[in-house]
Amino acid sequence: MHWLASAESTNDVAARLAECGAEEGTTVVAEMQTAGRGRHGRVWFSPPGAGLYVSVIVRPAPSMSNDEQPAPLLTLAAGVAIAEAVRVATGLPAEIKWPNDVVIARRKLAGILAEAAMHGSSTRFIVLGFGVNLQPAAYPPELGSRVTSIEAETGRPVDRAFVLAEILAAISARCRDLREGRFDAILTAWRQLAVALPGARVEWDSPAGIVRGRAEGIDRHGALLVNVDGNIEKIVAGEVRWLA
Q: Is residue 6 within 8 Å of 32, Cβ to Cβ?
């Protein structure tokens, strides 16, 4: 465990440690990030003491084939783990929003960013980064109505060490599921925690323009399935916007 007062990005610190041979499970936690990031290069707002900013080194099992894409599978497993841990630690009804957000009443509580280091077609290691909002903060105007925190939802102080311990234990358990081939158990838990997914209206940009449809669920690889005028479209990656 590496606990830092400040870091540009815990993912970057963990990646450097992994390059130097740090073992799986090595964890970097920062009190704040000056250049935290989310998916698609977005900034992850990381003010001092207001959240958990954490990165964990994961080394995929050699038995995993190259076409299994361990980073997306790990992202799904981590979403399940964080939602489960938040429920255990706080009693809050945490849910999952595809592909990598943990939400409460549609407001974002936590996000996940898994970044893989490759050697040819093989994955050398993955840095699993996640941020959890613990306390209300002076969020930028574009985020204010879309995010929440554990303290804002519970109305009481949060034990950050207890929440972190529950999350790390849950991630360890779900990583064990991946290693031992129990991905169906992860998918089942994911679907149970993605309460708002079935029937949700979504849209995304395609080469032909904006496409809209209704989410049906996810397939066994975690791809989003969307009904577009009676045809099922499979969304593997990219930006999906959820419509009211």
A: yes
CATH code matching the domain that covers 201-242, chosen among 3.30.420.10, 2.30.30.100, 3.30.870.10, 2.60.120.10: 2.30.30.100
Q: How far apart are CA 225 and CA 240, in angstroms?
A: 12
User: E strand or H helix at 244, and its extent?
Assistant: none
Q: Output phi, psi for 134, to 5 deg.
A: -95, -45
Amino acid of residue 100: N
Pairing of strands 231-235, 95-97: unpaired
Residue 69 predicted with pLDDT over 80: no
Question: What's the predicted TM-score (pTM) here?
Answer: 0.91
* The pair of three-digit structure tokens given for residue 155, joined into one six-digit string: 């109305």
Domain ranges, ordered by start, for the chain: 2-193, 201-242
- What is the 3 state secondary structure string of 88-153? HHHCCCCEEECCCEEEECCEEEEEEEEEEEEECCEEEEEEEEEEEECCCCCCCCCCCCCECCHHHH
pLDDT score recorded for residue 65? 46
